[in-house]
Amino acid sequence: MELSKLIREQVNRDRKRGFSVDFEADAEREEQLMRDVIGLVGEVGEFSNLLKKVMLTRTVAGYDGPDLTSAGPELREELADIAIYIFRLATILGSDLEEDILAKISRNDERYRRLEK
């Protein structure tokens, strides 16, 4: 599935559930952006905390935590949550995230071309 279609499907589900991405005033848009950034940071925190436990399991004798294989499904779920927040933020800002990502890849190609082997 194309990224743009995936974003539209998620945003349509958000609208059905009462999670707006459409605002008349900038103040409302800014408030929702802030709420969604807080949600995004929370999800990144959950991903980071689990990854920390994976690393402690590997590096600290006697630490009883998950290994990367067993934590993989939960890490992937946190990444999906992160992506959904990013989709919402992009939509609220009126972004075509797929186009923005492709443009950024192109700029990075120019910036880092000298590092290619």
Q: Indicate the mean pLDDT.
A: 96
SSE class: mainly alpha
**H/E element string?**
HHHH
Shape: globular
Helix content: over 70%
The description of the largest β-sheet is: none
Gap from first CA to last CA: 31 Å
> Which class in CATH terms?
Mainly Alpha
User: How many domain regions?
Assistant: 1
E-strand count: 0
CATH-assigned fold name:
Helix Hairpins
List key phrases describing it:
117 residues; 0% strand; mainly alpha; single chain; Helix Hairpins
How would you explain this protein's 3D organization?
The protein is mainly alpha-helical and 117 residues long. It has one domain: Helix Hairpins (Orthogonal Bundle), CATH 1.10.287. Helix content is 76%, strand content 0%. Helix 2 packs antiparallel against helix 3. It is globular, with a radius of gyration of 18 Å. The mean pLDDT is 96.
